Amino acid sequence: MSEQQQKTPYDLPDVSGLRIGILGGTGDQGKGLARRFALAGHQVAIGSRKAERAQEAADDLRATDAGLPVRGAENAVAAGESDVVVIAVPWEGHKATLESLRAELAGKIVVDCVNPLGFEKGKGAFALPVEEGSAAQQAAAVLPGSRVVAAFHHVSAKLLLDPAVDAMELDVLVLGDDREATDTVQALAGRIGGMRGVYGGRLHNAHQVEALTANLISINRRYKAHAGLRVTDV
């Protein structure tokens, strides 16, 4: 048994049969996550405000990876038919999208990977203030009947979509107040080649995780890289 396995304090659940919805799946990050989860064998529904756009995104993925179990649908349909729903919409439409899907997302694990960021010419990316504290906390406030988890903030969309990249060697910080839900999302992260889900604290710690994305953008621009995170000694 490896040192890493010896330090794992508990077994993560079997998530191989979970159906995954990606709201905002027509954007690069959502589309990339859809691709990787489908490659791992999950049934994936890409959601968009228009079913046609969602289906175009699904067709694009299958054009590169034939036979992927991915389809497109309107957001409400994608959310309703999925066990776990990933929120990857632009920050500007975050709250309104969630408010419109409160019924469809009730009782589900909702994974928020949205980074509230601004961009200023000559200064780059910076974290935006959020009244609730973070995008994930806003999601929890809007969706009191859902089990909100924050994760997948620091994953390169370009690498997710690159067919030449078999594995992405990085850790995914997973935050939330529901232990079963965070365990499930950690296990889902581990379904993607090279990734590992690492518990990162309660949901009220999501702000600094979201904000760190601005630093990674600066790193990537300076070094022309696709930097991720690794947590040592865990």
Automatic annotation (TrEMBL):
Keyword Oxidoreductase in the entry? The reply is yes
Q: Which Pfam families match?
A: F420_oxidored
| Domain of life assignment | Bacteria
TM segment ranges? none
The UniProt keyword set, sorted, is: Oxidoreductase
Q: Where is the Pyrroline-5-carboxylate reductase catalytic N-terminal domain?
A: 19-116
The molecule here is called NADPH-dependent F420 reductase
- Species name: Actinomadura parmotrematis
Which gene is the coding source of this polypeptide chain?
A: npdG
